[in-house]
């Protein structure tokens, strides 16, 4: 089943039927990762044996600080190389593919061209550019990148016009159109997050990867970001996001993957991964009368408890 769009309820029903164990096969994975390891000196930052991300779903990647989430993002998008990287001749056994394309030896721009795009925080340099200029950087078919197009001025100009149109469309959608000539660095924290998301959409990615989309965002904009993420998914964009804000994870995701110490230690439906008794116990100790705090950051103890809970359920 690779045709899209899915009916969201149907997709969720499929996910409901899955075994909730790390590495479980998905009905239609857009990203499949096999054995990807990254070490920094003596630290194993990432050691993922197998992971599949369902096409068309919103998948949250959670885990305590230092769990390896950002490093994992960097690896699969080609911004970092695995310690077990495959080489032209020989090399390691790291393998991952996206949308049917093996990305094992490709770099960041090829990963983006394959349709896997991640958001980036506004750096100082980008902050000194206008909002519209930032958007145009997000287009992965800039004339300068393509020798053929670059040689023919009319083509070049057309591409540029199309990119500007797309940028303006997205800025309107994200309510940033009035700011298009402002310096990006002068936007509020929440508006910067919206711009990061809008910029990543310039190339119409099949999957957008968001690294902590809610960090530093005020409550008024949180709701708007949530709606944008759901709208993307409803249009057929697969969403993979790292987030510490449990309110967001619980409300927006179809599936949750939990990392700890570099490994995927649990995955499943948000309600079962996050609301298991073991998690509540580990979070709150004696305070059983409360639900999980919405803005809590999971601790390693909680994560281990989630894993044990999932294993116990499996054994039953
Ligand atoms: N460039 C680097 N050099 C050395 N160690 C690194 C590097 N990048 C990451 N690490 C280490 O790898 C581990 C995983 O870090 P990573 O940033 O991927 O975790 P994370 O889950 O994204 O954490 P956070 O939620 O705090 O962002 C940590 O122990 C971190 O210190």
TrEMBL record:
PROSITE patterns documented for this protein: ABC_TRANSPORTER_1, ABC_TRANSPORTER_2
Source domain of life: Bacteria
Keywords of the record: ATP-binding, Nucleotide-binding, Transport
A Gene Ontology cellular-component term: plasma membrane
Pfam families registered for this protein in UniProt: ABC_tran (PF00005), BCA_ABC_TP_C (PF12399)
Coiled coil: none
Molecular-function GO terms, alphabetical: ATP binding; ATP hydrolysis activity
SUPFAM superfamilies with a match to the protein in the record: P-loop containing nucleoside triphosphate hydrolases
Domain (ABC transporter): residue spans on this chain: 31-286
Identification of the protein by name: ABC transporter ATP-binding protein
């Amino acid at each position: 089943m690779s045709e899209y769009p899915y009916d969201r309820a149907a997709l969720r029903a499929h996910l409901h039927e899955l075994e909730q164990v790390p590495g479980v096969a998905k009905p239609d994975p857009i990203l499949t990762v096999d054995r990807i390891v990254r070490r920094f000196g003596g630290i194993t930052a990432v050691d993922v044996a197998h992971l599949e991300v369902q096409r068309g779903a919103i998948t949250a990647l959670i885990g305590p600080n230092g769990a390896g989430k950002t490093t994992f993002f960097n690896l699969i998008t080609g911004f970092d190389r695995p310690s077990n990287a495959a080489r032209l001749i020989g090399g390691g056994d790291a393998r991952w593919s996206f949308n049917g394309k093996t990305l094992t030896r490709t770099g960041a721009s090829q990963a983006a061209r394959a349709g896997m795009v991640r958001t980036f925080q506004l750096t100082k340099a980008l902050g000194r550019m206008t909002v519209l200029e930032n958007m145009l950087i997000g287009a992965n078919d800039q004339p300068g990148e393509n020798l053929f197009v670059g040689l023919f001025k009319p083509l070049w100009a057309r591409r540029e016009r199309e990119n500007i149109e797309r940028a303006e469309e997205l800025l309107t959608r994200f309510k940033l159109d009035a700011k298009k000539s402002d310096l990006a660095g002068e936007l509020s924290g929440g508006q910067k997050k919206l711009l990061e998301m809008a910029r990543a959409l310039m190339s119409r990615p099949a999957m957008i990867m968001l690294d902590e989309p809610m960090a530093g965002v005020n409550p008024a904009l949180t709701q708007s970001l949530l709606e944008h993420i759901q709208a993307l998914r409803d249009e057929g964009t697969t969403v993979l996001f790292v987030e510490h804000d449990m309110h967001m994870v619980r409300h927006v995701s179809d599936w949750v993957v939990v990392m700890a110490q570099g490994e995927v230690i649990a995955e499943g439906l948000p309600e079962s991964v996050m609301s298991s008794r073991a998690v509540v116990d580990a979070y709150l100790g004696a305070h059983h009368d409360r639900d999980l705090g919405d803005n809590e950051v999971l601790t390693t103890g909680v994560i281990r408890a989630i894993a044990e809970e999932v294993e116990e359920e499996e054994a039953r």
